[in-house]
Recover the amino acids of this structure.
């Protein structure tokens, strides 16, 4: 189950609900909550921390901010995964507008106002990533941060944009209409949501005024692990959207990808944009193994710690794409694309039970 439901009492004065999915985030959550508490906000809003089963002090830390923030902590431990936790957060949201940020990042000054302003005009928005504040020079040299100058885009579904859920806003009715995040998509679940919303006829709008300071993975092990997770997520997306690829490739206008960056959250390596390969049977495995061999060959050209960290990410990505065990997702049916936002949405995508 997606955890989505409606019928929540929504006081007229609460305009925006911010949802943070958290799992064992005690070490970083405080910085995010401090940044939210420091915002100058001329409207009523609320914060929902959706705890995904933390065993550290995450819950107590979040509750300790009740005197500084309009915060509620909800139990989102029934289904593991950031997408499932965010769904629970939206299910109890009391505002018509929803914004997401993550427990290990820090929102920039004016983030709440920028999100609320954008969502009063657009149904689906995403802001800008910045890596300078929370990361040292060595880490920054080893990683390419997407979404710094525009929305992300892939070669798999040309013409459709994507964004990281850590800096994303959406109208609650649109979110519910498409079924929210798919709990079966454990990695790159934000890309999956972005594509489904756009296929339903709602564009994703770039809001550079909404800045998020992202925290990149700092150890080689975590870098390799994140690459592996992103590789498995890309494989899952390629399976789910293979029926859409050729249709959208033909419809994509020349030059539509200008200014876009590769799909993937903060930490995506420069060579790790989504591939157009169909991972069908042995063909997909051969292509993924070919990528692993190419990355292995790159090891001979590594000359610095930063290059080695980047190589670890690419290696993890190739291994994840080739070898991660995945449940085959149900293909996304071709949705009716029509301008007009939420009013033009088709019935909710039942690939995610509501």
């Amino acid at each position: 189950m997606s955890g989505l439901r409606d019928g929540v009492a929504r006081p007229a004065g609460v305009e925006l609900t911010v949802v943070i999915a958290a799992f064992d985030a005690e070490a970083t959550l405080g910085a995010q909550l401090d940044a939210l508490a420091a915002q100058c906000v001329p409207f009523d809003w609320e914060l929902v921390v959706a705890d995904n089963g933390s065993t550290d002090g995450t819950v107590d830390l979040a509750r300790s901010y009740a005197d500084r923030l309009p915060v509620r902590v909800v139990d989102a431990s029934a289904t593991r995964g950031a997408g499932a936790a965010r769904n629970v957060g939206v299910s109890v949201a009391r505002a018509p507008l929803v914004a997401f940020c993550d427990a290990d990042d820090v929102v920039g000054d004016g983030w709440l106002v920028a999100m609320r302003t954008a969502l009063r005009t657009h149904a689906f928005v995403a802001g800008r990533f910045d890596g300078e504040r929370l990361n040292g020079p060595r880490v920054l040299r080893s990683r390419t941060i997407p979404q710094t100058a525009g929305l992300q885009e892939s070669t798999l579904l040309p013409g459709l944009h994507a964004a990281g859920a850590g800096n994303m806003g959406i109208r609650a009715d649109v979110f519910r209409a498409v079924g929210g995040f798919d709990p079966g998509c454990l990695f790159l679940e934000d890309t999956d949501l972005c594509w489904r919303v756009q296929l339903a006829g709602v564009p994703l709008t770039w809001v550079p005024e909404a800045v998020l300071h992202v925290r990149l993975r700092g150890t080689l092990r975590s870098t390799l692990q994140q690459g592996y997770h992103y590789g498995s997520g890309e494989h899952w997306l390629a399976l789910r959207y293979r029926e859409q690829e050729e249709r959208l490739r033909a419809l994509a206008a020349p030059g539509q990808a200008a200014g876009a960056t590769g799909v993937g959250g903060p930490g995506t390596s420069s060579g790790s944009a989504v591939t157009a390969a169909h991972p069908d049977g042995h063909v997909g495995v051969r292509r993924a193994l070919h990528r692993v061999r190419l990355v292995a060959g790159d090891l001979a050209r590594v000359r610095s710690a930063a290059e080695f960290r980047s190589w670890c990410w690419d290696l993890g990505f190739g291994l994840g794409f080739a070898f991660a065990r995945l449940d085959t997702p149900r293909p996304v049916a071709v949705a009716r694309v029509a301008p007009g936002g939420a009013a033009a949405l088709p019935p909710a995508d039942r690939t995610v039970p509501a």
User: Anything to note?
Assistant: The first strand starts at residue 14 and ends at 22.
